[in-house]
Design a protein that fits this description.
The protein is mainly alpha-helical. It has one domain: Methane Monooxygenase Hydroxylase, Chain G, domain 1. Helix 1 runs antiparallel to helix 2 and helix 1 runs parallel beside helix 3. It is elongated, with a radius of gyration of 19 Å.
Length: about 120
Amino acid sequence: MSDEIVRQEMELAEADIKKQLKSCVPLLLLALTVPIAAYNEMLLPNGEPSDIWFQRSGSIMVLFAVWMEYNLMKVNDHINPSGITISEQTALSKKYKSVFGATQYLVALFAISGTVVWGYGDFFK
């Protein structure tokens, strides 16, 4: 492969990584906001008990966590390439590995928290 082609491919890969990581930011905020809003009885439907409303918010939190994980699967292909890699891929991987790892842990935390709220949220309220 020529150097120009490699450079273009790495630019595309980096743009894809940035796009997918940035797409996680609003999802993280929504996943955090929904249970807080439900706990504070925002948008509570008439006749709906507040503890059940909070419990249901856990399912939305899990939904956003799964969506973020789907986005991170696309990033994983660039961060942890399989097979023979070139030095440009290694440099790209090193550049985003810590952000990717932190985001992965945060998403896992949100998925676990959402599952707990979904299952036991009525006991917390």
